Amino acid sequence: MERKKEKKIGSLLDDFVRANNLQHGLAEYRITKAWNTLLGKSVALATRSIYIKDRKLFVKIHSSVMRNELSMIKGDIVKRLNETAGAEVIDDVVIR
Fold this sequence. Notes:
Blueprint: H1 9-19, H2 23-39, H3 41-46, E1 47-53, E2 56-61, H4 64-72, H5 74-85, E3 92-95
Parallel strand pairs: 2-3
Antiparallel strand pairs: 1-2
Helix pairs in contact: 2-5
């Protein structure tokens, strides 16, 4: 039996994502998962919740010192997270 039109599983998954218009949701998921990796273990341990709404990343941090430090580098955080997601997903980070 000969195979016709072989495709790699990665390209099939990409086709599925595009066909079902899931790119934006997948990029948002990548950002929330990248938060812990990009900002390190201490920030990950202090993070209580994280979600995206209206192109803003909302993050709840229990440490006031860490909230202040992260607020000072918001622009860099947005840039790095968008690069990781591979798209312009968020415009701002709200740290509470």
